[in-house]
Amino acid sequence: MNSLRSQNPFLLVLLTVGFLGLLSFLKPGLEVSGVKLRPVRLLADVWRPNPGAVAALAPPPPNGPAAPVATNSGPSAASDTAAAAPKTAAAVAASQPPVPANLPGLESFVAALRQTKATGSKTRIAYFGDSMIEADLLTGDLRNLLQSEFGGSGVGFVPINSVSADFRETVHQTFSPDWYEYNIVSDRRPGTAPLGIGGQVFLPRVVSNYDSTHIVSDTSWVEFRTGQRFAPLRRFAQARLFYGPGAARDQVLATTDGHRVPHALAGTARLNELILTPGTPARRLRLAFATRAPRPVYGVSFESPNGITLDNFSFRGNSGMSLTRIPFEQLAAFGKVLDYRLIVLHYGVNIADSRNKNYVFYEQAMTRVVDRMQRAFPHASILIVGMSDKSARIDGEFVTDPTVPLLLAAQQRLARRTHAAFWNLFAAMGGQNSMTSWVEQTPPLARNDYMHINSLGGQRMARLLYTFLMGEYAHPGAMPASVAAPDSTARTQAR
């Protein structure tokens, strides 16, 4: 009896495997009672079809006019009129639209770089993105490449608090737990706390009584220590604290490498700044705030008076469209004091979705974002960084998500419509199925989610973007019609 029972599990497994094996021979697209059966690929995880079966992308089309904007452009409306997505890896590859070409438009930035190279003047860059640049991923290496070539030091703008503070390598940050934070995803935000340029605002705890000669130790505080990975970041020559209006007697106690100096927060404008210049370049800064009423605080910028300053404005989960929640008056106020010469908008992983077969709604929303940036920062070039490759598991394989080329086309149309520059990151990293290559090579350049890069991938992307920028610097406006040369180390087809 026990012998028969011990054989039952084996027989059950054998019958199941045999049944699945028979199903794998069924014709794809077979329907039973109106229900389409999904294909069965029993050995999909250990076997891949001939790479030749995956069709290559067609060459990029000539640059044409932007597509007309539809009246009903929401995601559901777009999905209703779209055809169903291909069900096999080969069909996905064959149906991909052509790769959008790069577009020029960095004249203001290139002119600023030339001036910096000739005279040592400052060129400031704002890099907006999502988790792809979190913790200074990609931007840290890009900043280092630019500072090595054009001079400058410092990590740039750092908010009071960040989800990446514990693992960011370019600056180390600790803070007291009594700050109130509001950001672009906050449901309720007081009108007295407008969001800053990074989509955040912080309020220190109100202190009703304190000694005017010194600030007690339990007030809201934040401490910064310079990162040691890159030489230009190991010390800072200047720190600029940005804050909003508040009570006349508010103070901040600044401790720079052990040297303590109290400062009045006397500014009453929409945006104010306190410039802290240590006698010698410093490594550590601690700020303790004593405010008698709620006062907005935005962050601190560590920089030098010359060369390159690159500010990382990352926000996890952001699609870019929510940047319109930052009051335009606040953007313009930051524009006056920071004078950016390049604004980079790098989004995509949080908007690319297989349910969306049309991204006109995204194009419309981001057009408003770019328009606001152009008005708030009139001296800056705008660069749209196209969507990186992102994999989807189709027919047992990790291949380029079929929505990626659709979003890339919308991003190129966005750039053309707003007269911004466009860089096709998807093509630069290797094109179709390059994310699979980045994940599976040794050492890997991306994470196992087949979507996000790791630190090595950040270095590779930074080098690719730097090469693109330096190509514009060497030959402004002379960009060829074709896409950028793909990364030579990436495989463009699935194995």
UniProtKB/TrEMBL annotation:
Q: Where is this region: Disordered?
A: 57-82
Q: Where is the composition biased (Low complexity)?
A: 66-82
Q: Where are the transmembrane segments?
A: none
| Name listed for the protein in its UniProt record | SGNH hydrolase-type esterase domain-containing protein
